[in-house]
Amino acid sequence: MATGRLTLRLILPIMLYGTVVPLLGAAALAAVRGRTPWLRMLDLFFRGCGPWTWWMLATAAFWSLTPPEVAFRLTAAWRASLFLPLIGSCWIDYRIFRSELAHSRAGAAGRLAALRLLWWTPIAALFVAPAAWQTIASALGI
Amino acid sequence: MTMRRMAWVALTVAVVYGTITDRPVAKRPLLLGGYRVLAGDFHVHPIPFSASTLAPWDLALEATRQGLDVIAMTPQNTVLMGRAAGWTGGAIVIPGEEVHGPRFHLIVLGTRETISWRLPAGDAIDAAHRQGGVAIAAHPALQAWSAYDATARRKLDGAEVRQPLSFTPERATEMETFYAMAPTAAIGSSDHHGTGPLGVCRTYLFVREVSQAGVLEAIREHRTVVVDGARAFGHPALVGFAGELPPAPSRPSRWGVVVGLAAMTWLVFGKE
Question: Which of A8, A128, A133 is closest, CB to CB, to B19?
Answer without folding.
Answer: A8
